[in-house]
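Sample intake — Glyoxalase-like domain-containing protein
Collected from: Auraticoccus monumenti
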Amino acid sequence: MTVQLVSLCVGARDPDRLARFWSGLLGWPTAEDGHGGVALAPTDDTGFLLRFRASDEPRRSPNQMHLDLTSATPDQQQETRARALELGGGHLDIGQSPDEQHVVLADPEGNELYVVEAGNSFLADCGFVGAVSSDGTQALGCFWSRALDWPLVWDQDEETAIRSPHGGPKISWGGPPLAPTVRPGRWRLEVAPPSGTTAEDAVEGLLDLGATRTDVPVGHGAVGLLDPDGNEVTLLPRR
């Protein structure tokens, strides 16, 4: 039993403002959202929405996920940096060394954003949205590989990455050392049952792979689960 990745969901104090920032940075238009948020639809092969839902949760620690944006040239890296700053983003100090080639920024609500240097080999064949970079175990990468039926494209030294057979961004997990799991998290993956499959079957399939149930309500007919590392996952109803 597999599920389909529908959206990467971001909790936001001001979903409209945050959507405007990311729309301006990525060039993605707004899309219909029937789950109580604001959505952006990709204009490339990303394959899933970026969705913003209202949340009062502050940024209490580094997020479990962030986006890595690629650069074809050093000039493009600086152009992306400048555009993010013009849209209301800022620089973020996460303890990076001065010789790091990627640029660490934050969106208007403090969420991390990496602008990766030109020539980065790991993201060489990816588009502008190169990766959803995540904190997580090797077991979590294997869980999502089976849940989404996406092949592992990296599995070394407890670091893993998967990618859709149709292309788009990678989803990667950095392995240990891991930061403590913070719930509720501000970023989460949202999935849906494939066509012809019930939500109950999809839930049972994810449970069989190592997910667990949570009694935290998520609303709009969705089901809340925890992945094997304890991060929130939302199973959305098919529309």
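Post-analysis note: Residues 184 and 232 are 7 Å apart (CA to CA).
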